[in-house]
């Protein structure tokens, strides 16, 4: 007899055949549930950690969908399933490490923890800092409704076997300081961090965020020795978010209706693709004058510096952490998102042996595809110019490494 069966006569009649089938075949159905990768699903209103993730992992059959509609399993069957489901709750979560417990790192760890998809380890060299911040976040779990774990550590042992590692460690940008000024110090920091990450999580995917972004991604890629799909950087998602925000403000429309893409290096010569920018599928050039678009493009390029000037100390962290989390989520849920990411190019867009921001498909394997789109001669020249700026920083790092022996 099925539990919580609907009292609606029409619905009852509609699924009466299914109900009889379930009553006769519960053993088979339970085994089907257990065999389906061990993932919890929503059955009769009982526990499911996340609808989207469970549905994606489970891909329920028509029979299991019918279980939801009719109302669930009988109580004896539920007793048999519940212990198994409780064991699966922790097993289904991934493990994500965030290196650096400053504003960007801590806020990123908080956002990922809130998703509930992954247990998080927050690492920093400052004694007790990651422990204190992670404990504070953990204690928000009952309010937010997440059982995901988050722990802090001053070493890398706790990060072992992470699926994704986000590197935010580095010195912060201050007023009047260009990203270039950060170069050599953050090169040494990211090199040391990457060596530890590779030691404890040799199969992970690394998402680098430390500035100057493109050069640091190149350094992490060369230090890690991973395939290029497993090392990339976050910059374009943030730059694109700023660009979309300014357009939405200018037109007084929802940011959700603004579609855009910013390519190139994460610096003053980034390349917002105006030709590909639309608002509700309408080209932005139909809605704004060239002068207004040029002004928005320039504000996008100056976006990080604008926030640095306002804060006086430190730099942006709310929007960067949101952008990082979007990319991490795309990996954890294998979403196959097309997003701008700083990836190592091997001839794409006429660029070879350099990490530059381009459209990429992000899924469970990291950068699963570098998406090449047609560019005008002007756009291609702007991208090449941006790549040349990145190459200059990479050359400075290479010379410094050579001098250090």
TrEMBL record:
The UniProt record lists the keyword Ion transport: no
Q: Which InterPro entries match?
A: Isocitrate_DH_NADP_mono (IPR004436), L-lactate/malate_DH (IPR001557), Lactate/malate_DH_C (IPR022383), Lactate/malate_DH_N (IPR001236), Lactate_DH/Glyco_Ohase_4_C (IPR015955), Malate_DH_type3 (IPR011275), NAD(P)-bd_dom_sf (IPR036291)
One GO MF term on file is: L-lactate dehydrogenase (NAD+) activity
Q: Which CDD domains would you find in this protein's record?
A: LDH-like_MDH
Q: Which Pfam families match?
A: IDH (PF03971), Ldh_1_C (PF02866), Ldh_1_N (PF00056)
Q: Which positions fall inside the Lactate/malate dehydrogenase C-terminal domain?
A: 238-392
* This protein's name: L-lactate dehydrogenase
The organism's taxonomy opens as:
Eukaryota, Metazoa, Porifera, Demospongiae, Heteroscleromorpha
